[in-house]
Amino acid sequence: MDKKVTVVGAGNVGATTAQRLAEKELCDVVLVDIVEGVPQGKALDLMEAAPVEKHDTKLVGANTYEASAGSDIVIITAGIPRKPGMSRDDLIATNARIMREVVKQVSALSPQAVLIIVSNPLDAMCHVALEASGFPRERVLGMAGVLDSARFRTFIAMELNVSVENTHAFVLGGHGDTMVPLPRYSTVAGIPITELMSKDRIDALVQRTANGGAEIVSLLKTGSAYYAPASSAVEMAESILKDKKKILPCAVYLKGEYGFNDLFIGVPVKLGRCGMEGVIEIKLTEEENAALKKSAAAVQGLVETLKKLA
Ligand SMILES: NC(=O)c1ccc[n+]([C@@H]2O[C@H](COP(=O)([O-])OP(=O)(O)OC[C@H]3O[C@@H](n4cnc5c(N)ncnc54)[C@H](O)[C@@H]3O)[C@@H](O)[C@H]2O)c1
């Protein structure tokens, strides 16, 4: 295939991402992990599924980065996930070290790649990746909003007993607890959910969405969500590989948009061949603005922690 995507971290999210990329025949896939044998074994296992799944994607597993050279996209899932009782922020010291080390290596071998960051705490890891790569902000994107929106859409469809395909959700802000869902722009077949549900029900769904990651962690007990996160990272990758120019909520480094500077915040962006091709700005109400400010303050707090760690 003429496109190549490297997935770093062959754990739950990474391996599932590789599987979805392969089954959609979007690109050849290089899977990298530090654990000897794991990326090689998972890549071979996925290759052996190809005749049955009917695709000709080539997958390679490795413990080093040579095979990743010239990647169009690098999706980074390396790091440790949450355990019950842990917040995403508890992961910061370990995952910042891993992120810096990984980004230095992939950016040297794939200087034109778009980086899609998945490891948590997401917004802080984006800051590490931007700095360690030296890439322009257009090519360093964080995956969180697509997942938060997908969760919100799932709960809207469950509540109204309609197809998920009819749902659309609009989410701004940082990943998780401080995310800012915008119900007035969240729709079912074009109708705002504010016309279809009571405020109480909307608040309950918003709360469940913000808590969506923790809900899965508490059920699994030994790790965090990975099917929906992998699907979300692949939706971003697909829009870039096919130059679809989809508008998707992603964490991007803002330079004045929405009134924020030098901070990664989840906002709707256009994703095409060059990565982020524009931020879509909308007018927010006072209440929405206040929620976004709170979310930005939480990201700023993580950036301060990173500075102290450095
Ligand atoms: N952004 C999101 O919405 C979102 C959603 C789900 C998970 N996550 C995050 O994604 C990350 C991965 O989650 P997971 O469930 O796949 O975890 P996992 O433990 O299953 O996989 C992580 C993998 O990273 C590997 N790794 C560790 N250090 C490495 C290094 N230096 N180089 C290469 N590989 C390395 C590990 O060996 C492991 O295989 C976690 O930080 C998790 O919190 C983010």
Describe the model.
The structure is a single chain. This protein is α/β, with parallel strands linked by helices. Helices cover 43% and strands 20% of the residues. It has helices spanning 12-23, 38-53, 92-109, 122-133, 145-160, 199-210, 212-220, 227-241, 286-309; strands at residues 4-8, 28-32, 59-62, 73-76, 114-117, 140-142, 167-168, 171-172, 180-181, 187-188, 191-192, 246-255, 261-272, 275-279. The longest helix has 24 residues, at 286-309. The termini are far apart. Nicotinamide-adenine-dinucleotide (NAD) binds next to α1 and α3.
Brief description of this entry?
By secondary structure, the protein is α/β, with parallel strands linked by helices. It has helices at 12-23, 38-53, 92-109, 122-133, 145-160, 199-210, 212-220, 227-241, 286-309, and strands spanning 4-8, 28-32, 59-62, 73-76, 114-117, 140-142, 167-168, 171-172, 180-181, 187-188, 191-192, 246-255, 261-272, 275-279. Residues 8-14, 32-35, 77-82, 91, 95, 98, 101-102, 118-120, 122, 143-144, 147, 175, 223-226, 229 line the site of nicotinamide-adenine-dinucleotide.
Helix-strand layout with pairing:
Elements: E1 4-8, H1 12-23, E2 28-32, H2 38-53, E3 59-62, E4 73-76, H3 92-109, E5 114-117, H4 122-133, E6 140-142, H5 145-160, E7 167-168, E8 171-172, E9 180-181, E10 187-188, E11 191-192, H6 199-210, H7 212-220, H8 227-241, E12 246-255, E13 261-272, E14 275-279, H9 286-309
Parallel strand pairs: 1-2, 1-4, 2-3, 4-5, 5-6
Antiparallel strand pairs: 7-10, 8-9, 10-11, 12-13, 13-14
This protein binds nicotinamide-adenine-dinucleotide (NAD).
